[in-house]
Design brief:
Blueprint (H helix, E strand, L loop, with lengths): L1 E9 L2 E8 L2 H8 L16 E4 L2 E4 L5 H4 L3 H10 L28 E5 L6 E3 L2 E3 L1 H8 L12 E5 L24 E3 L18 H14 L3 E6 L6 E3 L7 E2 L5 H16 L4 E4 L22 H15 L5 E4 L6 H7 L3 E2 L8 H10 L7 E2 L1 E2 L11 H13 L10 E4 H4 L8 H6 L10 H8 L3 H17 L3
Parallel strand pairs: 5-8, 5-18, 8-10, 9-11, 10-13, 13-14, 14-15, 15-16, 17-18
Antiparallel strand pairs: 1-2, 3-4, 6-7, 11-12
Length: about 450
C-alpha cells in the first residue's frame, strides 16, 4: 500500500515524492493524523546526550503519557542517532545489529504495558500506544550491548481482560488465552479496521528499533494458566500432551517474532522438565526438557529469526542445563548488590557466546521494599561490573527500576491486579497517580546519569 504525492511535471521530468505507507505512517493515518513530521524542541533540562545517543530523563512518566501519538513520534524522530531530521518516518527500519548472540550481553527492561494503558472508568485499553509514549525515555543501546524492552502483556488475560478492578479482585496477567486475538488492554480496537493488531505491533517495533532498542515479550508455560479458545464451545485448559496445543503455542510465538519481537521472557523456566518442583509456584504441568528444546528450536526456525533471545525466569543455578535447553540467559542467580562478585562472574563468562546468567535488578515478583539506593547500585553493577565492555553480563529490570511507582503498590501487585489510580475516572489522573512524583523524578535523573556514562563503552 502506497501514499503518493505527485508534485510537478516539467520538461518531461516527473518530480515526485513517494511516501510508502509504512506501519508508523499507517498508525498515524489511522489515528486521523497527518504523516508529515515536525522537529520537537528538546528541553535541555530533560535531554541526556551520550555521544550521538539521546533520550529524555529527569521526568515523571505522565509528562510523556499525556502526549498524543504524533507528538511522541515527532519526539522519537527528533532524538534520532543521525544528523538530519526525517520529515516522514523512514520506510526501512532494522533492529540494532549486535549479531545473533546479542542476548548474552543485553539489558532487559520489562514494561508493564497494561499498568500504563489508558484507564477510563473501568475500561483499560491502548497499552501499546502508552508504551510507545515511554520509548523516548528509555536509554538506547550502547556501542557494545543492547537495551531490550520486554512487554508484560501481549495475549488476553483469562479473567477481566479489558477491565480494571479494585485491589480486592485479582486480575492476573499470569494467565493467558491462545488461539484468539491479542489483549484488549493492549490493542487499539477502535482503529483495527484501519490498522490490524499485527500492524500495530509492527509500528511499535519499528519505533523501538528506530530508538536503538530491541523488543520482546513475557510468556507463560504453566498449563493451567493457559486457556485455548474454541470457536464452537468453552475455552479449554492447555495440555502439553496435546500435540495440537504444542503446535498452537509454537505458531503463536513464532508469529510474534515475525512481527519484529526478538526476545521472549519465559515465566517459570527454571522448572521445565520437573526441575526443583518443590519451589514451583505456578499452576499446572510444564513442558518436558526435550519438548522445550524442540519448542525453542521451532520458534527460531519457523520465524526465520536466528537471533531471538530466550530468557528464563530463575534459570541460572544449573547453567549448562539451561544453555543446552536453548536459553540465552536466565535471572536470579547472581548476587546483584556486590560489584566484585558481579565482576568475577563477568570474567568467568567473558568467552561464553551462547548463554550467560543475568544480574537481576528486580523481577516481576518484587513486592516492594527495595530502596532507591539499592536499585541504583544494582543498575550500576549491571552497567559497569566487568573488565571490558565486551565482558558485560546481561541484566533484567522492571519498569519501576527506571520509573518508580507509587509507594503503596509494587511490580507484583501490578501483575496480579489491574487497578486504576485515577481520582476522577480519567486516564490522565491514573498516569499521574501511578508513579512516584518528585522523588521519582530525581531517581529517574540518577538512572539517566548511570546510562550516560555507559552508553559509549
Amino acid at each position: 500500500m502506497h501514499y503518493i504525492l505527485l508534485d510537478i511535471i516539467f520538461n518531461f521530468k516527473v518530480i515526485y515524492t513517494v511516501i510508502i505507507m509504512n506501519y508508523v505512517n499507517k498508525l498515524l493515518k489511522s489515528l486521523g493524523e497527518d504523516i508529515k513530521l515536525c522537529r520537537t524542541e528538546l528541553n535541555s533540562n530533560q535531554l541526556f546526550e551520550s555521544g550521538i545517543k539521546r533520550w529524555i530523563g529527569n521526568i515523571i512518566p505522565v509528562e510523556l503519557l499525556n502526549k498524543n501519538v504524533k507528538q511522541t513520534i515527532e519526539l522519537i524522530v527528533s532524538l534520532c542517532e543521525c544528523y538530519s531530521f526525517y520529515e516522514y518516518f523512514p520506510d526501512e527500519i532494522e533492529s540494532p545489529n549486535y549479531g545473533d548472540n546479542w542476548g548474552v550481553r543485553a539489558n532487559y527492561i520489562e514494561i508493564n504495558n497494561r499498568a500504563i494503558a489508558e484507564m477510563s472508568g473501568n475500561r483499560t485499553k491502548n497499552g501499546l500506544l502508552s508504551t510507545i509514549k515511554l520509548l523516548p525515555a528509555i536509554p538506547p543501546s550502547a556501542k557494545s550491548w543492547a537495551n531490550c524492552v520486554i512487554l508484560s502483556q501481549i495475549f488476553p488475560n483469562i479473567f477481566g481482560d479489558g477491565y480494571n478492578k479494585p485491589k480486592s479482585e485479582e486480575n492476573s496477567i499470569y494467565g493467558l488465552k491462545l488461539n484468539t486475538n491479542y489483549s484488549d488492554n493492549i490493542i487499539n480496537n477502535e482503529i483495527k479496521s484501519k490498522i490490524s493488531p499485527e500492524e500495530q505491533f509492527r509500528a511499535f517495533n519499528d519505533l523501538a528499533h528506530f530508538r536503538g532498542l530491541k523488543t520482546g515479550f513475557r510468556t507463560i508455560i504453566s498449563a493451567d494458566q493457559i486457556k485455548v479458545v474454541q470457536t464452537d464451545g468453552n475455552d479449554i485448559t492447555f495440555n502439553w500432551d496435546n500435540s495440537e496445543h504444542v503446535e498452537l503455542f509454537i505458531n503463536e510465538h513464532a508469529k510474534l517474532v515475525k512481527l519484529g519481537f526478538e526476545a521472549v521472557f519465559i515465566d517459570s523456566a527454571k522448572h521445565i522438565g520437573g526441575y526443583d518442583m518443590e519451589n514451583y509456584t505456578g499452576v499446572g504441568a510444564l513442558p518436558s526438557y526435550g519438548q522445550m528444546q524442540y519448542i525453542l528450536h521451532e520458534i527460531r526456525s519457523r520465524s526465520g529469526c536466528t537471533s531471538v533471545s530466550f530468557v528464563g525466569e530463575k534459570s541460572t543455578d544449573d547453567l549448562n542445563r539451561y544453555k543446552t535447553l536453548g536459553l540465552t540467559s536466565g535471572t536470579g542467580f547472581l548476587y546483584p548488590d556486590n560489584y566484585d562478585e558481579v565482576k568475577m562472574w563477568s570474567i568467568r563468562f567473558k568467552y561464553e557466546h551462547d548463554y550467560s546468567p543475568a544480574i537481576e535488578v528486580s523481577d516481576d515478583n518484587n513486592m516492594g521494599g527495595h530502596s532507591y539506593e539499592t536499585r541504583l547500585n544494582r543498575i550500576n553493577n549491571s552497567l559497569f561490573a566487568y573488565e571490558y565492555p565486551s565482558d558485560k553480563l546481561p541484566s533484567f529490570m522492571q519498569m519501576e527500576d527506571i520509573f518508580p511507582i507509587r509507594y503503596d503498590t509494587s511490580t507484583h501487585e501490578l501483575m496480579m491486579m489491574n487497578v486504576s489510580y485515577s481520582l476522577d475516572g480519567t486516564k490522565e489522573s491514573h498516569w499521574e497517580n501511578l508513579f512516584a512524583k518528585d522523588d521519582g523524578r530525581e531517581y529517574n535523573r540518577k538512572v539517566g546519569e548511570l546510562f550516560y556514562y555507559a552508553l559509549n563503552l
